[in-house]
Amino acid sequence: MNNPSTRIARRSKPLLLAVTALALLAPLTACGGSDTADGDANTLRLWHYEDKDGALGKAWAAAIEEFKKTHPGVKVVFEQKAFEQIQQNAGMILNSDKAPDVMEYNKGNATTGLLAKQGLLTDLTATVKERGWDKKVGDNASVTARYDAKGEMGGDKWYGVPNYGEFVLAYYNDDLFKKHNVAKPTDFAGFEAALAKFKAAGVTPLANAGNDHPAGHWLYLLALSKANDTWVDNYQLYKGEVDFHGPEFTYAANKYKEWVDKGYFEKKDVGLKGNNMTEQFVSAKRPIMVGGNWWFGALTTDIKNFKWSTAPYPGSEKTPGSGGNNWVIPTKAKNKKLAEDFIDITMSDKIQKLIGEEGNVPLAVKADTISNVKSRELVNAFHAAQNGRGLAFYPDWPVAGYYDTWLSSTQNLMNGAKPDTVLDELAAPYDKYVASRS
């Protein structure tokens, strides 16, 4: 339920391309030439799926240029892939002689963890310690880079390296707060008071999208407001039993239904995608949006007619979030040392600072080195969450295919289903998977 982002108009999910594995093997974009012999010791083959105009796309392009400067005589063959191309076909490609030397890959048990379990990714543990990357990536953010023998995150071996972070926070239209004389909330009581005051003024307060990840994020965020570290570890890492009719999820489902009934979300939001949600905020139709920092960069560009700000969601000390997607080195990579050198460049102060200035969250640079005030506030908020164990991952991560369950269940809740029924729907695949592990 988390994703890299580009512009608002196409940021809900990376575009699903109907590609074959053969298409994935073909270079789409190349820097420095695309003709490379297998095993060429002077060639680095690199894949990623970031939009060239986004913060990460700009950062990776700068890292490639820096790599060329520090590795004269080495050819860089870069191939732009679609997120879904890699997501759907990575296992087969990495098990062939066409594997790149380094690529960006999605974090989580069903992705990085699965490939690590299958032996398709290089164990980077020793390299991480030698190069000091573990010191730059905090413990909370590194959970999704480390896996155990079952391919479950939080293990003791590093199979990927994240160098940016992501989390869910609140976005406020400051002008609408001022216009309707609504106080910016600093706690949950103030947040609900703001919702009620906006609604009384005829303004639907909350942006939402029921046909995409935001609705599930809301339900999980409400559960997290009643959760502690043990609950998160039990749910995400299977360290103990999870009761879907316990106080955390029960509160979340009931509060969500209450807000729908009160009109804090509109019922028609059930069919919306993430880009529709951000448009509600950008067009000043909704004064509050609670969503990922991946929307931040484009909002900075797209909002021209009102003042806006961000803040941690005031209702919970925990929020959906984690370290970003991983740089991974396939087991069958031809030039692993070059791949390590490239990853090291993405962890450098120069590239990390660029990530921050462009509106994303670098993991390995101090916020006070970033000149962009809004970006600096964003980075400080992430580090506060990370250092306080406030990053609670994403609700669909524990079970493969769980995203669809969360999507349909939250839609059912928005359409009037009883909270207990919705919680049963969420519990069924989770309990089935946990039982299969024993």
Question: Your description of this structure?
Answer:
The chain has 438 residues and is an alpha+beta fold. 45% of the residues lie in helices and 11% in strands. The protein contains 19 helices and 11 strands. The strands form 3 sheets. Strands 6, 7, 8, 9 and 11 form a 5-stranded antiparallel sheet that branches. Strands 2-1-3-10 form a 4-stranded mixed sheet. The two termini are 27 Å apart. The model is unreliable at 3-39 (pLDDT under 50).
Question: In summary, what is this structure?
Answer:
It contains 19 helices and eleven strands.
Output the keywords.
438 residues; alpha+beta; disordered N terminus
Q: How many beta strands in the DSSP annotation?
A: 11
Name the helix and strand elements from N-terminus to C-terminus, one letter apiece: HEHEHEHHHHEEEHHHHHHEHEEEHHEHHH
Low-confidence residue ranges: 3-39
Strand content: 5-15%
Radius of gyration, in angstroms, nearest whole number: 22 Å
Shape: globular
Count, helices = 19
Separation, N- and C-terminal Cα atoms: 27 Å
Largest sheet, strands/sense/barrel: 5 strands, antiparallel
Helical residue percent? 40-55%
